[in-house]
Amino acid sequence: MENNKFTPLDLQSWSRGEMFYYFTQMAPTGFSLTATLDITILKKALEERQFKFFPAFVWAVNTILNQHMEFKIAIKEEVLGYWNTLTPLYPTFHEDNKTISQIWTPYSSVFKDFYSGYLDNEKEYGDHRGVLAQPVSSLPANCYSVSCLPWIDFQHFSLHSYENKPYYFPTIEGGKFTANGDKVTMPISISVHHATTDGWHVKCFLEELQALMNEPLTWLD
């Protein structure tokens, strides 16, 4: 799949055209919410195969986001449209000084291909410091932020932007694992722009992500 195809949108014919105008020009609004994911089945399957959890989480999130146009809307060269896929921009943690740098890996619908690319990037750029571990000149325009706070079992997480510029991609944040008997859960926060995304779209994302995590053998093997 081509990872950087951009398709323009016509506000007059787009079903969300009026809503987009309202939530960008009249009442600029975004929202965030936090839900709980059951990761019991996925965690066990990954451990049995000696796969890392975070890249699997990133791949699963990206897979579901890619199935909904509303999460892929952007402005390119002053034209409103949507990308056919998103590219995850995620942090790598530097243990020595407790800082992070951002890395991105092109999405592949085949998990093992994405996982291999993730490991390759960690090996090549994982020790690079600064905001971006990879050359900024190669940063794809379809990058969105997906991250994790593995130390905190938060009940809510909200990001606030202090820049006045159009940005419509979602921001995803995972949290600390919590074990309760045989069940393991983790919080997940999603922040979106209301111009492109309603509660219905977030509901679909969360339900479909949970379903994907409940059937890991369909994509791990």
Poorly predicted regions? none
What series of H and E elements makes up the topology?
EHEHHEEEEHEEEEHH
Q: Give average pLDDT, whole number.
A: 95
Helix/strand/pairing category: alpha+beta
Largest β sheet strand count, sense and barrel closure: 7 strands, mixed
Radius of gyration: 18 Å
State the helical fraction: 25-40%
Strand count: 10
Q: What global shape is seen?
A: globular
What characteristics describe this protein?
three-stranded antiparallel β-sheet, 221 residues, alpha+beta
What does this structure look like?
- The protein is an alpha+beta fold and 221 residues long.
- It is 31% helix and 27% strand.
- Strands 2, 5, 6, 7, 8, 9 and 10 form a seven-stranded mixed β-sheet that branches.
- The two termini are 20 Å apart.
Topology:
Blueprint: E1 6-8, H1 17-26, E2 30-38, H2 40-49, H3 53-65, E3 73-76, E4 79-83, E5 87-94, E6 99-104, H4 111-125, E7 143-148, E8 171-174, E9 178-180, E10 183-193, H5 199-214, H6 217-220
Parallel strand pairs: 5-7, 7-8
Antiparallel strand pairs: 1-4, 2-10, 3-4, 5-6, 8-10, 9-10
Helix pairs in contact: 3-5
Summarize the structure.
This protein is α+β, with helices and mostly antiparallel strands and 221 residues long.
